[in-house]
Amino acid sequence: MSMFITDRTNEYGLYAISLVKNGEVKEVVIDDYFPCQDGSPCFSKANGNELWVLILEKCWAKLHGSYERIEAGHAHNVMTDLTGAPSHDFDIEDTGVEEVWNKLVTGERKGFLMACSAGTTNSSAELLESLGLVAEHSYGLLKVCEITNESGERIRLCLLRNPWGDFEWNGDWSDNSDLWTLDIKRQCGYNDEQGLFWMSYSDLCHYFCRIQICQINDDYHYSFMKASHNRGSYSLMRLIVFHEGEHHISVS
Question: Which of 60, 91, 169, 197 is the most exposed place for a label (fewest CB within 10 A)?
């Protein structure tokens, strides 16, 4: 599903985005006035002169009533609302380190959206901050890979993005880590873009508590229906599947 109905700047300053809230597709239209302070946007910051980030954020805020009401939330719920695709939230400890890794490898291969949350772990917020991490904060999980170092040891690495863009992990495999070699950089496709950082999968499992995966697929066909019933009663629905394939059903 294409989110941006209006994908070009226009003289009218009007933009429309298609969002999915509680399973229902909604078209949200906004103008091009954005809250700013000291010449800069108050909330999300774009990369250079890109406008799409501010447009998406304003549509998301309008859908919920205000910017204040979108300040926090759970990444998997947001990804579902933005894309319509089914999303899943995994507790690393409960799910298991190996199973989560397999899900991440599959997710990257299929082009799924992935995120991870630093928060309720054995580490304090102060310790996380000293390591360049932010507690109760969602990070984009862009890539996972398994590399071989000079000793023949297999190491699992993860590429993360801090949406804030200016606060990065400073532990093992960070930008200034001595662990990097030219061969390892080649193996994982290393780059030092601001806001991106690498860390080992073992460190991710120690300092992060949850993984979110959104199974976005451009070939999916979406549909929804609304139902209502009196308090204390219930609704019954019969779903008939006419074609074989991969089907996801969600209830909001």
Answer: 91
The torsion angles phi and psi of 206, rounded to 5 degrees, stand at: -80, -40
Q: Which domains does the chain have, with CATH numbers?
A: 14-71 (no CATH), 87-214 (3.90.70.10)
- Count other Cβ atoms within 10 Å, centred on residue 169: 23
Q: If we measure between CA atoms, which residue out of 89, 64, 93, 53 comes closest to residue 74?
A: 89
Q: Are 31 and 58 in contact (CB under 8 A)?
A: no
**Predicted local confidence at residue 163, as pLDDT:** 73
Long-range contacts of 102-106 (CB under 8 A, 24+ apart): 103/211, 103/213, 104/141, 104/144, 104/158, 104/211, 104/213, 105/144
3-state secondary structure of 81: helix
Q: Decide if 143 contacts 158 (C-beta within 8 A).
A: yes
| Separation CA 118–CA 92 (nearest Å) | 11
pLDDT in tens, 155-167: 999 999 887 666 6
Both structure tokens of 249: 């059903």
